[in-house]
């Protein structure tokens, strides 16, 4: 396997991006970067510091005092902001429902894109998000666009919530996923869209291992050319 490849995995909410990106990175011994966690961390910090979520200038100022670190840990890496562990808080329903508003702000996108490109500059990487193949890493050697039906994605989130002991309603989850997809696909800057040179992988009827296998095959095929 060639060293220093960039692998971009984009797609809508709950398509399985972070789960499979993590496994692909582990298999290849590459660094993994969850860009969604970065936008979630900005959203959590804004809520905590009472910064208006649609105030681009105020968010820009907030980001001058925003030391974001990923710390490797088992079973999942920790997310620290200015030393505070916010790994669990960034997955709250409040953050999930507000993150698309924050991620549409120009200063936030500009700053996160810059930081993501800095992380990628250090070597081989698997990065997942919404605009990795189109904006953050336009020259990535392999680009995957992961999709699944809205119903299947809601079912996946539902099962995840049940496992965590969270009260949940499948119809509400389906609505929330649709709303977030709409906002992420219709914002002005770097909307969620498939890069022209990305390979579309529909995971609706595939389990995690099958998706990982498919992506590794695509990476291997790229190697041959
Ligand atoms: O895991 P899930 O699909 O719920 O979302 P995520 O990957 O954690 O991303 C959370 C939100 O961050 C998305 O709904 C987008 O609004 C934003 N995001 C983005 O705008 N650009 C990225 N590269 C990654 C995430
Ligand atoms: O990162 P993204 O929001 O795209 O999705 P995720 O958080 O990786 O996956 C959402 C849920 O779907 C997780 O509980 C995964 O275990 C599950 N999943 C699945 O059941 N089948 C797949 N092929 C991929 C993910």
From TrEMBL:
One of its GO terms (molecular function) is ATP binding. It is an enzyme of class 2 (transferase). ATP binds at residues 11-19. One of its GO terms (biological process) is pyrimidine nucleotide metabolic process. It comes from the Bacteria. It is found in: Cytoplasm. Residues 7-221 form the Cytidylate kinase domain. It catalyses: dCMP + ATP = dCDP + ADP; CMP + ATP = CDP + ADP. Keywords: ATP-binding, Cytoplasm, Kinase, Nucleotide-binding, Transferase. Its EC number is 2.7.4.25. Its main location: cytoplasm. InterPro entries: Cytidylate_kin, Cytidylate_kinase_dom, P-loop_NTPase. GO terms for cellular component: cytosol. The keyword Cytoplasm applies. The keyword Kinase applies. PANTHER family: CYTIDYLATE KINASE, CYTIDYLATE KINASE/PANTOATE-BETA-ALANINE LIGASE. Belongs to the cytidylate kinase family. Type 1 subfamily. This is Cytidylate kinase. It comes from Ligilactobacillus salitolerans.
């Amino acid at each position: 396997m060639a060293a220093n490849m960039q692998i971009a995995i984009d797609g809508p909410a709950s398509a399985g991006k972070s789960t499979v990106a993590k496994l692909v990175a582990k298999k290849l011994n590459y660094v993994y970067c969850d860009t969604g966690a970065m936008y979630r961390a900005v959203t959590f910090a804004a809520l905590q510091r009472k910064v208006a979520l649609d105030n681009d200038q105020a968010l820009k100022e907030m980001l001058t005092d925003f030391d974001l670190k990923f710390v490797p840990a088992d079973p999942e890496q920790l997310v620290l902001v200015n030393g505070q562990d916010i790994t669990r808080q960034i997955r709250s329903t409040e953050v999930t429902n507000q993150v698309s508003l924050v991620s549409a702000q120009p200063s936030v996108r500009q700053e996160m894109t810059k930081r993501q490109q800095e992380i990628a500059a250090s070597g081989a990487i698997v990065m997942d998000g919404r605009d990795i193949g189109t904006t953050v890493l336009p020259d990535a050697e392999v680009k995957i666009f992961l999709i699944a039906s809205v119903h299947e994605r809601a079912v996946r989130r539902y099962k995840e919530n049940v496992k965590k002991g969270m009260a949940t309603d499948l119809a509400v989850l389906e609505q929330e996923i649709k709303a977030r997809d709409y906002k992420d696909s219709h914002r002005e800057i770097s909307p969620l869209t498939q890069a022209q040179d990305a390979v579309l992988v529909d995971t609706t009827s595939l389990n995690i291992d099958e998706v990982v296998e498919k992506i590794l095959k695509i990476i291997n095929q790229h190697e041959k050319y």
